[in-house]
Write a structure and sequence with these properties.
Elements lengths: L2 H15 L3 H14 L2 H13 L9
Length: 58
């Protein structure tokens, strides 16, 4: 996964934890849509492995 993609997902997680879901989606959605099939698989794995990042204090 590209560093920029990981950074966008991490920022989206931070915003979600702070109840800023619309902003989180504004950052994450374009990155997810632009991903090719290989990066999409990596994103899916990352999201599964980091689900708590979106809901719990880090």
């Amino acid at each position: 996964m590209r560093d920029s993609t990981r950074h966008a997902l991490e920022r989206a997680a931070e915003l979600t934890r702070n109840n800023r879901l619309v902003e989180a989606m504004t950052i994450a959605e374009p990155v997810i849509i632009a991903a090719d099939e290989f990066e999409s698989d990596e994103i899916r794995r990352w999201l599964n492995e980091h689900a708590d990042d979106f809901t719990k204090e880090v």
